[in-house]
Amino acid sequence: MSQSSDQPVGGMAAVDQPKPDRLAAGFKILVGLAFGAATYYLFDLHTKQTPSTGAGVMTGIAMGLGVWLLLSGIMPFMGKQLPRFVGPALLVICAVAMGMAEPKIVTAMEIRKEEEGWAQLQASPKTFEDYQRYQFSSSAPRKDISGPRALARVKSELERLEKYKGARVATLRRVMQECWNERDVKNPATMQPAMDLVKEELAKSYAKGLEDLAKSTGTGKREFPEDPQMRAAFAAILTRLAKSDDDSVYLSFVSKNEIKADNAAAEKLISPGDAFSADRDSMRYRMFANSLEDCLKSAFTEPLVNTRTLGDKAERKGKVVFEVQCTSRRAPGYFELTRDGKATGRLLNMEVEWDFVIFDVDGKELARNHSKSNPADSFRFRSKAADPAWAPYSVMMDSTYYNYCREVAGRLGMKPPAAREYFSFQQ
């Protein structure tokens, strides 16, 4: 009797292969593809930066992880498993390979891209836009283009100014400063053609400014006759500023108070108090500076001169300086202070001696104008209950500073600020 058996020959039982976890494998493939995209992103990012081994290693790590995960996800569908040592080995190999290869690849790409951009620039009309296009196309543009690029930019700005009639002087000075900042420090002479063109155009604007100044003052009778020496010095200053990088004149103030009022009470006079203090003088300096700056702005079709106040110990070398020297002294007699037609006290009389001096950049005196004024000659002010007793003296000095600024403007050939009928005490 024969006996059948289901066991295979040899006595070995069949073993079924485990089915792959499709969900886990699919997830690994998706993550691997994500790392592949990250590899492309990093490589593209590094082409826009300075090549380095560290950047290449980062790209290689992303690549190694991507390959590792892709193989780990694909092989189970083939009935195989990725050996454990393969993944780390792939990571190391990709990191080392990209750390060595990526800098060379990126450098070669940059050289080719720069050469293509340079060829396009040479074949172009070489406008400012052409230079910009070349610079944007290369992460390492050639340094010797700084001068020609600046010259093209100046020409472009001049064309725009001619078309749109903008603030010519301010624009040219801004472009000149920016071009100078972009110069090749090892060869600054390449920037000279652009700088020369800017200064040539500035000279035209300043020459026109002098013509406008002559027209604005006219030939009729003036409140303050023009001082020929001051006007000539002013013209020389404007000519110098047209060629200078600094378009400022610096105001310096020297104030001396020689008024003695120790016996004010015995003389039945109102005491000057703090009317001549340094704080009050500082306010007058600011008023003078602001008024003169307004005159300079209105004297020309566009601002040609900026004013800055120079500190007592500030360096003067290389600066055009307008110095205002003021000396206040007591004059004989006194005058009555009245309110609503009624006497309210006695004020001492005073006179103020002025010198306006123009110094060139080397400290040479170019012009000096000397004058005197008596603040009480035509003095009217509005008082407030909170004003200190010495307020009239302070307002007198305020008014004489303002009126002297009007005189200086007239002597320089500009239209003086409008005369004020009243003044008031400012805290």
Describe this structure in words.
The protein is 50% helix and 15% strand. The protein is α/β, with parallel strands linked by helices. The protein has 3 domains: 98 residues; 71 residues, no CATH class; 155 residues, Double Stranded RNA Binding Domain. The strands form 2 sheets. It has a 5-stranded mixed β-sheet with strand order 2-1-3-4-5, with helices on one face. A two-stranded parallel ribbon has the order 6-7. Strand 6, helix 10 and strand 7 form a beta-alpha-beta unit. The longest helix has 38 residues. The chain is elongated, with a radius of gyration of 41 Å. The N and C termini lie far apart (134 Å).
Blueprint (SSEs and pairs):
Elements: H1 22-46, H2 53-74, H3 86-123, H4 128-137, H5 146-164, H6 168-181, H7 192-217, H8 228-243, E1 248-257, H9 278-299, E2 306-309, E3 320-339, E4 342-359, E5 365-373, E6 381-382, H10 391-411, E7 423-424
Parallel strand pairs: 1-2, 1-3, 6-7
Antiparallel strand pairs: 3-4, 4-5
Helix pairs in contact: 1-2, 2-3, 3-4, 4-5, 5-6, 5-7, 6-7, 7-8, 9-10
